[in-house]
Amino acid sequence: MDSQLKKGLLEFCVLAVLNKSDSYGYQIIKDISTCVEISESTLYPILKRLEASSYLETYSVEHNSRLRKYYKITNKGKDYIKEFLEEWQQVMEIYYFIKGERNYE
Amino acid sequence: MNKAEFLNELSFCLQNMNNSEKNKFIIFYDEMLSDYVENGMTEEDAVDKIGDPKKIAEELLADYGSVKINLPFTGIRGLNYILTIIGFPLWGSVLLAFVLMVFSVYVIIWCVPFTTGALSIGFFTTSIIGIVGSPFVMLKNASMGIMQLGTGIASIGISLLLGLATLGLSKRLIIITKNLNAKLAALFKKKVIVG
Amino acid sequence: MKIKNIKRKCIILSLILILTGVLISIAGFGVAGFDYNRLKKEATHDPWYQTIHINSDTPWYGVKFGNNIHLMNIGNAD
Fold first, then answer.
1. Which of A14, B38, C2, C58 is deepest in the core (most CB within 10 A)?
2. How far is A9 from chain B (nearest CA, A)?
């Protein structure tokens, strides 16, 4: 897949994971990996960008005598996912049109 | 490589980066490695999975288009602005050098249509004077006068050609200048977001 | 089409002007009997409205106001 496209899509994957529940780095990678391959070095800039655009917030929780950073989606982030999904509805229509499976009279 | 070695190597490769950014990054990987270990992996395997610290550092630096100038950025916005202003002599001079360089490039490329334009005007005025003055010259010196008339007419032709060339060149250069400006603006926007 | 036509016309016009001018100049030179030296002798006055000058054996084309103000100067290394 085109790497720019993949990076863009992964942003939404991260938000989708956080939408279900707050999470932390290791867990996010594990969850997304069930669907698509993502590396730690790819995840970091994505998290950074999302935080800079206020789509997610961070907080720390103590775990086994070390601090673990948690990521939490914001309302702005939730709207962002919604927008993406709505737009992709359109993309799917076009996909089927190109594939030739829909009947347009 | 174990966790400590990995993190040290990473820290070393990122030494040119400003500290707060670097630390956030290192902490991220420290956490990640600890989580892998907590979930059953050995440190060595976890480090292998994550990859080569040098490459990771390279990617990070490239992604951020990091400028080698170490701008101290704190987490507090107001303080950032003050520090930026205080640090002006440092990044200001680099910025100034860059701006001057760009400016000189513009001057050089615009010299060409400027020259043809100036020549065009020069030829044109000379030809007008020449044509108008030729009968007077003819009174004293017939052949010179006729030649003056001839060169005057030819000069109008030359000035017209030069004028066309100037217009054509200017149009093209305006497009090139606009493109260059857009590219430079994009370059700066990238750096500003990074800071 | 409109724009291309104007440009073409201008280029052709300028070439015609140049050609005409050169021919007239050659004719003028002919009146002087194609004698460069005679031309040089007779061209010593150099009034401001004269555009062809010959100074110390160097011909140059341009306009001279007064002693050092040149409107244009092609050919004189002075």
1. A14
2. 17
Asked if B61 is an interface residue toward chain A (Cβ–Cβ < 8 A), one would say no
Domain for residue A104, yes or no?
no
Compute the Cα dihedral for A15, A21, A24, A27 and give only its sign: negative
Best residue in C10, C22, C36, C50 for a mutation probing chain B (most B CBs within 10 Å): C50
Q: Which residues share a beta bridge with C72? A: C63
Q: How far apart are CA A96 and CA B14, in angstroms?
A: 47
**Chain A: residue whose CA lies nearest to B38:** A64
Does residue A104 register a pLDDT over 90? no
Which ranges of chain B have pLDDT less than 70? 63-81, 87, 188-195
Where is average pLDDT lowest: A101-105, B166-170, C19-23, C43-47? A101-105
Name the token pair of B133: 């003055």
Residues B41, A37, A4: CA angle, nearest 5 degrees: 140
User: Is A76 a member of any domain?
Assistant: yes
Closest-CA residue to B66 (of B13, B6, B8, B5): B13
Q: Which of A82-86, C23-27, C31-35, C51-55 reaches the highest mean pLDDT?
A: A82-86
Task: Quote the domain boundaries for residue A80.
Answer: 3-99
Q: Is residue A105 part of a domain?
A: no
pLDDT in tens, A71-98: 999 999 999 999 999 988 889 888 888 8
Task: Give the per-residue pLDDT at A31.
Answer: 93
At B120, list the tokens: 């065009």
Tokens of C58: 């160097």
Q: Do the domain assignments include residue A35?
A: yes
Q: Closest by alpha carbon to C61, among C71, C48, C52?
A: C52
CB of A69 within 8 Å of a chain B CB? The answer is yes
The number of folded domains in chain A is 1
Angle CA A31–A36–A38, to nearest 5 = 75
Pick the closest to residue C50 from C41, C39, C61 (CA basis). Answer: C61
Residue C64: which of C52, C75, C56 has the closest Cα?
Answer: C52
Specify the CATH number for the domain of residue A66. Answer: 1.10.10.10
Question: B-chain residues within 8 Å CB-CB of A10?
Answer: none
